[in-house]
Amino acid sequence: VQLQASGGGLVQPGGSLRLSCEASGTFFSIKAMGWYRQTPGKQRELVATVGSGGSTTYSDSVKGRFTISRDDAKNTVYLQMNSLKPEDTAVYYCNARIVVIYTDNYWGQGTLVTVSS
């Protein structure tokens, strides 16, 4: 099972980006999916999650600006990021709890988002 993240890049403050993360391989189902981010010298922090039923949670720092969604037909989770700020600059990692035989936690490789003028 692999998670492949994409969509990062350089964007000006106030701009938008959409991250995608596709799960591939052989598995039974995907439970919760989410996005985390990390900057140098800091711990990885939760950005947003979406449950198998579609319920969502957001960190206070992104609430109202970011939207997480999933397409179960494509085994993909998205993060729409609007009104980006320089402090959103980080490596973004996708995460999924995937049922193969047991439920395990999987991480994508990370995609860099840089918000700068």
* Number of DSSP helical runs: 0
β-strand number: 11
Strand content: over 45%
How far apart lie the N and C ends?
37 Å
Which blocks of ≥5 consecutive residues have pLDDT under 50? Answer: none
**Helix-strand makeup class:** mainly beta
Q: Quick one: overall form? A: globular
Q: Element order, helices and strands?
A: EEEEEEEEEEE
Mean pLDDT: 96
Cα-based radius of gyration, to the nearest Å: 14 Å
User: Share of helix among residues?
Assistant: under 10%
Largest sheet composition: 7 strands, mixed
Give a summary of the structure in a few sentences.
The protein is mainly β and 117 residues long. It contains no helices and eleven strands.
Features of this protein?
117 residues; seven-stranded mixed sheet; globular; four-stranded antiparallel sheet; mainly beta
